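Section handout 9: paired folding examples.
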Amino acid sequence: MSNQKFIIKPATGEHGHYAEIITQEMERSAQARGTGIAKRSPEYIRTKMNEGKAVIALTKSGDWAGFCYIEAWGHGKFVANSGLIVAPEFRKHGLAREIKREVFKLSRKRYPDAKIFGLTTGAAVMKINSELGYYPVSYSDLTTDDEFWKGCQSCVNYPILMSKNRSNCLCTAMLYEPKSVKKAEQKKLSSEFNKNLSLFERLVKIKRAMFLNIAKGKRNALAKVKGKS
């Protein structure tokens, strides 16, 4: 796919030299937002490119502009579109939405029967997901594959996730189901979520504040205990 400024297409091994800058920007972006993402090495990103499980956006002059990759879990029963990132100078051009649409199409092509899910703290990504047919679900509706959840260990919010026995965290879980939910019902759920996105954003902020206050309280209590010992 291409538009006036960008070429968006499945990544291949020839794009491997962009892996370093992609992973660096992923980490910088997470730090700027104050939220965590599962860290990925340049080698891991190159593997995804070589496997044809990634989408890259380039400018017409060949500069890197954005990226996203596919991960499969539970023997291909679940698929996640992960690591969506856009270079700072190309943000606010609608590029994230276009990349997300392309990686969604690639996921449907490679894993036509899989449930596609995502975990995110970003309202913009939630909105894009809802446009594609995702709707909010509980964590219990996601993959139980331990390897997926291990990827959260590098996230700053991992202690919160584990304190909830992987049943909740600051991220919102969203799911696209190709078969088990009727298309009309799925569309309705996505539409309702999209209409109430501003309200949902406020609820996410409340949840974040609540979890962080609980974590702070536990740290303070532990510090007092250590101080007395």
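Moving on to protein 2 of 2.
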Amino acid sequence: MTSVEATAPFLVVGLGNPGKEYAKNRHNVGFMVADLIADRIGAKFSRHRRAVGEVAEGRLGFGGPRLVLVKPLTYMNLSGGPVVALAQFYKVPPEQIIAVHDELDIPYGQIRAKVGGGEGGHNGLRSMSKSLGTKDYARVRFGIGRPPGRQDPADYVLSDFSAAERKELDFLVDRAADVAEAVATRGAEWAQNAYNGS
């Protein structure tokens, strides 16, 4: 690890869409997790001068890694632009980028860590991978499950969590924040072993 990487923060990217009409959508769970981590480290989001996004900066505990929390404000399918701009600004290598996103292929109630691999049709991940020129960044995958019946997946992800799901939502957002922090402090492999089975 070079001295630049040793001092570079982790870029934790919460994927979502800007605007109140999207705030409680399944597709916006990345924003929810980023907001919670910001609360935990006592950081406030503000617009960044170099990217179309909101950023909050802080440190995980005493002597822990620095975090730059990011909420791109370009809409999901253009998320990669702000992520690349901020990665360059803060000199963050891809292996210190953590994307937090909703995942159709995982049942609701499950959260998993992963590094690299495909995007599973997720437009935010697709944009990030294309802009970064690599898929080798960490992901915290928040399971939302498949839509019921014949509902279009695009409509499903842009709808709010159901009343039954909302009963568990705060707990699951809290758990996803734990997983993201574990990736930053202990590494993706440790987080996978600790959280993926449960």
